[in-house]
């Protein structure tokens, strides 16, 4: 069993950290390197200071020992019943257990935690062993009016773990770490059954013994769990080829206060509406996912990644849209706009960065866009797909920047959250938002969201940096992922971002974008849900919740508008 690192209020651990097998199974927040010089090259620091109007300053988080934590409000008789059901070791209300499961990893979560605000800490942490115990604790909590929030890896970036309740009832977290095993492997059917608390690295290790892979690799892969993937309809970095996680789920078990719901019948069924779709993306509002059967595939014999450059964002978009129309999109597709391409060059080093810089300059694309593409599978199929895509990319003005660029992206693709933690230590606002749109609407959505963010965060001598990339391509469109850096308002940091987020969301919805593509709704997006699904759609979801969770104890405060 791994030694537990020091608990801090940082958001992510150092690069390369693996926390799949820790003592309590909770997300561990490791101390980040506070040296800005080590986090950012000198050229990047100068560029950000000049472009943002940012004055680097030391803004460390409040030490953990100084965080005030209110006493647990879980009634003693209810706690006793839970202990009888789950066992003494699986009902915890000590300080560390509660703090480790407070909130997620959004900018708002981290700012609150860094300031010492743990007002959203749960009153207790429960660790059931199986579906039966989970269903029983949900029924118990429903009887006693105790709110239940499922907890996997704690990586929500949209306030999905808030547990906010208008009646201010006690809140317990259901930690899924005891349900984290590989339950069954059906190689002929390409199906595996797993517990919801299993993390991506652990699953891939287990599948490797059968020469299989799931292939779902989001940026939170090191920490997030399969139950969380399902509850949020996650998308991975290779989802253009593999599919989103909701495409990979064949069936699941959902424990609810009203009973246990088993949905999904692989390989396919026409027996009425697909109830599996109600559980996927439900974000803990209907119950707790306790088991999943997912589609897997043979491990790829070859994986190849490479970089391309385009003279402009519009040229890159046109090339990818053409690939999509001919069903030639690679498994990994990531087109960075000029701002993100320039930032990648400034923030990174090594052979990959040198190769990209040389490729852009030699091809006259110094102010252009970087495209990273990747293929996975059998060598003959990969080569055939690669040749066909390469031909079209070149016809549309793309210039190949080489495999070193693609390999550098693979090596560094999980480092963004770690860098964010270091930048927060030095006075920056760092946050992301994402959407999706049809190919015809993408340019308008891109312009509208960027303009709204810039206007909302600009001030005297201040201008935010808004970096965008396209990923997760489809025949009909693609997603846009925006990363925002700005000089932080140290007096009103929450209000600063909330205003920008509101402006950007209004703008991208008006331009034809979706409310979210893969981060889910959580607390942050729920005021706009009726604009995405319509008032009647919200009523349908409320009716389902009333049937499965009549007392409203399952993760209130997320998904459904108040």
From TrEMBL:
One of the record's GO molecular function terms: alkylglycerone-phosphate synthase activity
Matches recorded under SUPFAM superfamilies: FAD-binding/transporter-associated domain-like, FAD-linked oxidases, C-terminal domain
Family affiliation: Belongs to the FAD-binding oxidoreductase/transferase type 4 family.
Keywords attached to this entry: FAD, Flavoprotein
Record-listed substrate binding positions: 420
GO biological process, one term: lipid biosynthetic process
Residues at which FAD binds: 150-156, 283-289
Protein name: Alkyldihydroxyacetonephosphate synthase
Active site: 481 (proton donor/acceptor)
Gene3D superfamilies: 3.30.300.330, 3.30.465.10, 3.30.70.3450, Vanillyl-alcohol Oxidase, Chain A, domain 4
Marked site: Important for enzyme activity: 334
Cofactor dependence: FAD
FAD-binding PCMH-type domain: residues covered: 118-299
